[in-house]
Design brief:
This protein has 233 residues and is of the alpha/beta class. It has seven helices and ten strands. Helix 4 packs parallel to helix 5. The longest helix has 14 residues. Bound molecules: nicotinamide-adenine-dinucleotide.
Length: 233
């Protein structure tokens, strides 16, 4: 953002995308281009012949949908350059983002509002039912297993009700699927099933755009989970 704004003028957030040629990256680029308060300033992806350093120069915020092995390094480079970072990449421990300074980091294993609600309902139900298991179902080119959403759901449920013990996670990978999850809870004579389906990657975009708008003003960093942006404003 440059210079003081005239009255009524909206601040434009300059956004670069890492993993821009990927399934999520392409959808994010289109969503940013469609947002009036954002400008897409860079697409970093080896598949496009562009490296991260090329796109950081013109960006206020970096959005990363790459690989578990590269997301941490990208966040380190971006924050060191003073660029706030929104991470959607899953399959690594978010604790690895601690102690990165220079700019803020926001990370969410799932940017779909329905998935956030599923996790909250599952956490609530965990306090009242004897046992639980999770089935997560994704497209066959997903690299990590179990999904970041399933791992987070299980840990939220285990925290809410230690008597559940470890919540088992079962992973299904098939063509035709996008991102789906069932949390099944059982107790004497009854079961409860909580299910969420992302049938299109558009489902993640309102959450990603919200994170881009809010990452620069986080009270602490890193912040993990979209629910933290929904409850605080
Ligand atoms: N948080 C969420 O809501 C959410 C939703 C869907 C997917 N995901 C996660 O997003 C990630 C990406 O998923 P996808 O389906 O788009 O994968 P994908 O394989 O289609 O795309 C990944 C892209 O990253 C690029 N890449 C690799 N190394 C790079 C680097 N160093 N710099 C820049 N780009 C690099 C690859 O060339 C590829 O184009 C996965 O970890 C997936 O689990 C998260």
């Amino acid at each position: 953002m440059t210079g003081p704004l005239d009255e009524g003028q909206v601040a434009v957030i300059r956004v670069a995308v890492a993993g821009a040629a990927g399934r999520m990256g392409q959808t994010v680029c289109a969503a940013v281009e469609g947002a009036q308060d954002m400008e897409l300033t860079g697409r970093a992806d080896p598949a496009l012949g562009t490296v991260l350093a090329d796109v950081l120069i013109d960006a206020d915020v970096l959005v990363d949908f790459t690989l578990p092995t590269t997301a941490v390094q990208n966040a380190r480079e971006a924050t060191a350059a003073g660029v706030h970072t929104v991470i959607g990449t899953t399959g690594f421990d978010p604790a690895r983002l601690k102690h990165m300074t220079g700019a803020n980091i926001f990370i969410a294993p799932n940017f779909a509002i329905g998935a956030v609600l599923m996790m909250q309902f599952a956490q609530q139900a965990a306090r009242h039912m004897a046992r639980a298991e999770i089935i997560e179902l994704h497209h066959d080119r997903k690299v990590d297993k179990p999904s970041g959403t399933a791992a987070r759901t299980a840990s939220l449920m285990e925290e809410a009700s230690p008597r559940l013990g470890e919540v088992p996670v079962h992973s299904v990978r098939l063509p035709g699927l996008v991102a789906h999850q069932e949390v099944i809870l059982g107790d004497v004579g009854q079961t409860l099933t909580i299910r969420h389906d992302s049938i299109d990657r558009e489902s993640f975009m309102p959450g990603v755009l919200l994170a881009i708008r809010r990452v620069g003003t986080l009270p602490e960093s890193p912040v993990v989970g979209l629910e933290n942006l929904l409850t605080s404003g």
